[in-house]
Design brief:
Helices cover about 25% and strands about 30% of the residues. The protein is α+β, with helices and mostly antiparallel strands. The protein has two domains: about 110 residues, Probable inorganic polyphosphate/atp-NAD kinase, domain 1 (Rossmann fold, 3-Layer(aba) Sandwich); about 170 residues, Tumour Suppressor Smad4 (Sandwich). The strands form four sheets. The protein has a six-stranded antiparallel beta sheet with strand order 6-5-18-15-8-9, covered by helices on one side. A hairpin with a 2-residue loop joins strand 16 and strand 17. It is globular, with a radius of gyration of 19 Å. The two termini are about 25 Å apart.
Length: about 300
């Protein structure tokens, strides 16, 4: 079962339907393929659940981070493998796995191998909502930027829309909040709990993260002034983030995140808005079977 978002960037070219080419490659390799499209936010979860219930032997998420996250939430806890074909504005897992273009990934998919991996689970306490995530969850600045991305600009310009939303935050005062991993709480304005090294398909922020580990690589950034993040960005680009003043990096299996004041602090999972603090992020071991290239070492 191939689940795709018809609005995702990169699935269709000017001269041909790239997704159709990928499906034809899978069929040529001997797979019986059914293709279904999402109908709106959240519909991919139900599509994946129905596919599992109907006996599908493999779920393929074709698109960006949002499509993958919805498919993940539909297959988590089952034995049905999940694979990804890159598309959309960004696909962090595809970048982490080194998959290349969509057609190239489809041609290589038949030789990929199954690996059981852990997933993250976000619980927003005010609403009781829960979301599994395979790559990362963030609270504070990055989730605030995602909340303010212009949907029209995103469709037209892709990642540029996030940069525009980010630079619009310069000079604004950030809300700080508390993050605890079982010990003393630490204050920050951006918390990242990651299972992968890559962030947004652009930067390696959580360089100690690994899909094979049963924990998060956690990166906390202090400071209420957004201008301070220009220094942090320079640290990421030059690979000198570790040890930088105002940055804390560690591993954890569970995080408690609490707001520091009355203003809302937003949360995102795999690049999609997911709610507000207070929240918990925790590792769920042995959560999903993921198809990966055999040479991928994590």
């Amino acid at each position: 079962m191939v689940i795709f978002n018809p609005a995702a960037r990169g699935l269709y070219g000017k001269r041909r339907r790239r997704l159709d080419t990928a499906v034809a490659q899978l069929e040529a390799a001997g797979h019986s393929v059914q293709v279904v499209q999402t109908e709106g936010p959240g519909s991919g979860v139900e599509l994946a659940r129905r596919a599992v219930a109907s006996g599908a032997q493999l779920i393929v998420a074709a698109g960006g981070d949002g499509t993958l996250n919805e498919a993940l939430n539909g297959v988590t806890g089952s034995a049905v493998p999940l694979a990804v074909l890159p598309g959309g504005t960004a696909n962090v897992l595809a970048t982490e796995l080194g998959l290349g273009r969509l057609e190239e990934a489809a041609a290589q998919l038949p030789r990929w191998v199954p690996r059981r991996v852990a997933a993250g689970l976000l619980t927003c306490h005010a609403t009781g909502t829960q979301r599994y995530f395979l790559c990362m969850a963030g609270a504070g600045l990055d989730a605030q930027i995602i909340q303010r991305v212009d949907p029209h600009l995103k469709r037209q310009s892709g990642k540029l829309s996030y940069w525009v939303a980010g630079f619009r935050q310069l000079g604004r005062r950030l809300e700080e909040f508390q993050v605890a991993d079982g010990g003393a709480a630490q204050r920050c304005s951006f918390a990242l709990a990651s299972r992968v090294r890559d962030y947004g398909g652009t930067f390696a922020i959580a360089r100690h993260a690994s899909l094979w580990r049963d924990d998060f690589a956690v990166v906390l950034f202090e400071g209420r002034n957004t201008v301070r993040y220009l220094k942090y960005l320079a640290g990421v680009v030059t690979k000198r983030l570790e040890g930088m003043r105002g940055v804390k990096i560690f591993h954890a299996r569970r995080l408690e995140l609490r707001p520091g004041g009355r203003a809302p602090v937003w949360v995102q999972v795999d690049g999609e808005p997911a709610g507000q603090l207070p929240a918990t992020m925790e590792i769920v071991p042995d959560a999903v079977t993921l198809l990966v290239p055999p040479e991928f070492r994590g």
